[in-house]
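quick one, 413 residues, struct below
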Amino acid sequence: MQRVVNFLRGNIRLEVECAYPERFMNLCAQNDIAFWNLVRIDHITIQVTMTIKAYGRLQPLLPNLHAQVRPVKRSGVPIFFLRIRKRYALMAGFLVTLIAIWVVSLYIWDIQITGNDQIPAHEILQVMEEVGVGIGSFGPGIHPEVFRNQVLLLMDDLAWITVNINGSRATVIVRERIHPPDRVPEGVPTAVFATKSGVIDQMIIWEGAALVEIGDTVVIGQDLVSGRVESLATGTYFLRADARIYARTWYELSMSMPLELIEKTFTGRTSTKSRIFFGKSRINLYFNSGIPYETYDKMVEDSYFILPGGIVLPIRLQRMIYREYTPTSGAMDHDQAAQLLHARLLAQLEELIGPEGEILSTSFTVEVAPGLVTVHLAAECREQIAAVRRLQADEMQIFELPDEITREEINQP
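---
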């Protein structure tokens, strides 16, 4: 940024020849004359760069220095205008160019989206287009509060969004909504059931009547805690069952991998196709759109034209590079394949049991067939298997006993 400021102010490169060049540096330091890019040519000659304004302050001090100071090079905006001051057509063209760049910088030519993990960027861009914000939109006409309200009404998965406009670049910052798990409304009778099969290891019951005990084997979908409670004193009543049930679970997973692999051997031959984007328009800089190779890798490079100050021009150069390769057959050692499958199986198991699960023990077996390796994983885990479901209407029916039969008589052997 300082280089841009110095360029706008104008620079001059000086060659100082003095018996003691240190005197020149001390003179500048004593009079607050800044310089940079010091280069020593020999023991009596140095070169420095300073602004034109600083050089004007230095000139009255030079007679006392007993040194030869020669301008070597002048650069910067003031020097440019000084050279073209009598070329009116060039001055007018330059002025028109500056006005055009200023007008172009008022429009959005680059959009960056940050903060999205689950929602694809193209979906956010599509909704932004619907509310009138996209490539080519007038930047000063975009009001962040109005933009935020309009987008949030159209995207339920977003909790918050804002747009920061810097020149012709718009940075969109989003925060995705964290949806709470489906819950049964308060006051509705529920039951706790098993989401996986296993052997009960621990039970923490806050409400409800337990239907199983520690050590019992349960299957997926089986009720563990009931929200229907039978009482001789108060009869049948229903409540919201809630519990955390831990069980030991077992998994058997398998995964195979061929030992023969296809490797890429790059030939060194490349082909490049370029195209220029002006806003939303595209101009291809090639005539033949075909790819000269049968097997290749494709890389895409985008280059934006950015002026000092972060002004993005609506011009983008895209280069598509095609690298030819020859597919060759390779072989992997069965031990390496087995280790790779071990890691993949463990990752799959951790995904199955979730962050609350715990792996108690694992056992691997490896089968080697011609050109194929298969790894089997047997694992014992400990998981929280309880989930809540709503009681159905038939489960909430209360059957009245005949008047002539008492509950004591029913309970008699």
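Residues 380 and 397 are 40 Å apart (CA to CA).
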